[in-house]
Design a protein that fits this description.
single chain, alpha+beta, 4-stranded antiparallel sheet, 20 helices, 12 strands, elongated
Length: about 575
């Protein structure tokens, strides 16, 4: 096979690629191959030409662009191959035919040199090539297929010279095109990829340890591109002392040779431990206080790290981080603990202090990106703090912010990522504003809206006892966990809440009750109403209370006794009978 071009491309991130293309045998399609030695396989691409009436007069040009290889055939196609993460074809960009990007490129033959330099064979001039950030951002806004949007998104995050600016532009694009992608979730992909690149330069092994993308498989074919992947024999390097690039490359080759397991971090362990802690909390059997305190301290460090990094930026207008929200803090803290253990296990040559800071930065970045997505939508729709009150009508702006918060929740839930403390409270408040009751309850029952103590407390205080509000309050209270429900019921001065408190009190009293022989004669003088079933029941409760005060002296039941239960029963009966 004759070679039209042979190019060895390497970059400072321990990658080694060899590219070649055979002589053209057809004007209908062109084949070229790239050997990814740092990955242990080769990929052969066959590209259909845009027009068979436009003959191929020039050879393929391969350009080294650090994290990418540009493959360019003047007038026909421009491919941008991701060499750091080449596994999925959707992370590379394939443009063909009369594309605006292709029309901007030179039509003379080019030769790639080191350091992103290229030589124009016709003029003899040297040029330094780089990817245009502004062009890529413009490209993102155009109506393009999902695989091109994903490829451009990753290209921007890996090659952008101003990460904060690029992230802001991508967030703006996501906010305007929240439902524009069908093959992947743009919020998920942005959060995972941006967090990855935020700490990638810290160590050379990060690409094997942290997730780069939320997409694990890609089965959609890209029109005009045929791809064949084959394993290759790894090079045998015989050098007495490896330094710099060669040291990193050799370490990567060793990883490819000997690693048989998938080392990318995931939150499966965090998911199991978090559910275990929440379950223990509901049953009141939580494990060591020291363990839980250490987990919560991890969350405090992440939030402090996040605040320290954002001191120079404009203050947030969204009401986040204003409450404890222990469930989310537990999730943040558990992620810090598990990720730190993961990196310590596989980065044995890196200082523990550096790894701990990397973990804090990574988790802070996750939370920060979520905050910024919400902040962008909040500012765009000009929302104000008064949306936190229930005694007002919802606006179109609140509907829009509620929608994007729901999409953020969907994106983070499948990956089991933490949310900023206060997120669920704000989401629930907007849900009460925006949704009719049956939809609201459907969202709650399916776990889309999570009832927090802060949100429900505000609801009980803000809303009066109209018939509509009573129905809402009762529907919310009966869906609360018992521990929170006992506290909230005391905030609602209503027969319905008294009824719920009474039920909980009776349940506690009768839990271990063993029936004792009693006198068949009841002292009617001690009861306000002569109703035998109720009188007998109240006398039984009174006997239990008097015989063992500890049974009803449980937390949160101050001033609740048999007399309270009797009054609540009568009030509730009166309400049901409409008397």
């Amino acid at each position: 096979m004759s070679l039209a071009l042979h190019s060895q491309l390497q970059n400072r991130k321990r990658s080694l690629c060899v590219c070649y293309s055979p002589k053209f045998v057809s004007w209908e399609q062109i084949t070229y191959s790239v050997f990814y030695f740092h990955k242990g396989y080769s990929k052969t691409f066959t590209a259909a030409l845009g027009s068979v009436h436009s003959p191929v007069t020039k050879g393929i040009t391969f350009l080294n662009l650090e994290y990418y290889i540009a493959v360019y055939l003047p007038g026909h196609f421009f491919h941008l191959l991701n060499i750091q993460h080449p596994d999925l074809i959707c992370h590379s960009l394939f443009l063909t035919g009369s594309n605006d990007v292709i029309s901007m490129l030179p039509h003379s033959p080019l030769q790639s040199l080191s350091g992103s330099l290229v030589l124009d064979w016709c003029s003899g001039k040297l040029y330094r090539v780089f990817l245009s950030q502004s062009c890529l951002l413009q490209f993102l806004w155009h109506p393009r297929p999902d695989w091109e949007k994903m490829a451009v998104l990753h290209c921007l995050l890996s090659c952008g010279r101003d990460p904060q600016f690029v992230e802001s532009k991508i967030i703006q694009w996501i906010s305007e095109n929240i439902s524009a992608c069908y093959s992947f979730d743009p919020i998920q992909e942005f959060i995972i990829a941006s967090s990855y690149w935020s700490i990638y330069p810290e160590t050379s092994n990060m690409d094997t340890l942290l997730p780069y993308s939320s997409v694990l498989t890609w089965n959609t074919e890209i029109p005009g591109i045929t791809l064949v992947t084959e394993e290759i024999t790894l090079p045998l390097m015989k050098v007495h002392s490896f330094k710099s690039y060669w040291e990193k490359l050799n370490a990567n080759l060793d990883y490819v040779k000997y690693s048989k397991t998938h080392l990318h971090y995931n939150n499966n362990m965090v998911r199991r431990e978090w559910h275990s802690l929440i379950s223990e909390e509901k049953t009141g059997k939580r494990r060591s206080k020291v363990y839980v305190r250490n987990i919560l301290d991890n969350a405090v460090r992440v939030i402090s790290n996040l605040e320290a990094r954002n001191l120079v930026s404009e203050p947030r207008s969204t009401p986040l981080f204003q409450e404890e929200d222990n469930h989310q803090r537990l999730l943040v803290g558990l992620m810090v603990s598990e990720l730190k253990d993961h990196l310590l296990r596989h980065l044995q040559g890196v200082e523990k202090k550096k790894i701990e800071q990397m973990v804090l930065d990574y988790c802070s970045k996750l939370l920060d990106l979520i905050c910024r997505i919400l902040e962008t939508s909040w500012r765009k729709h000009n929302l104000h703090p008064w949306v936190l009150h229930f005694n007002r009508r919802a606006s179109a702006a609140e509907f829009a912010v509620f929608h994007i918060m729901t999409r953020i929740l969907e994106a983070t839930r499948s990956l089991f990522l933490p949310l900023p403390p206060g997120f669920h409270t704000l989401h629930t408040i907007l849900g009460v504003h925006c949704l009719p009751l049956h939809n609201l309850l459907h969202y709650i029952d399916n776990g889309v809206l999570l009832l927090t103590e802060t949100a429900v407390t505000r609801l009980m205080k803000d809303l009066d006892n109209t018939e509509k509000n009573e129905k809402l309050k009762f529907s919310i209270i009966v869906r609360l966990p018992p521990l929170i429900g006992q506290k909230i019921c005391r905030l609602w001065d209503h027969p319905m809440s008294s009824n719920i408190i009474s039920r909980n009190h009776v349940k506690q009293l009768l839990q271990n009750y063993k029936k004792q022989p009693q006198s068949s004669v009841i002292d009617k003088s001690s009861f306000s109403v002569e109703f035998l079933p109720l009188n007998y029941f109240i006398e039984t409760l009174t006997d239990i209370e008097s015989s063992n005060r500890a049974l009803y002296g449980f937390e949160g039941h101050d001033n609740v006794d048999a007399k309270f239960v009797e009054e609540a029963a009568l009030k509730h009966t009166t309400m049901l009978l409409g008397l």
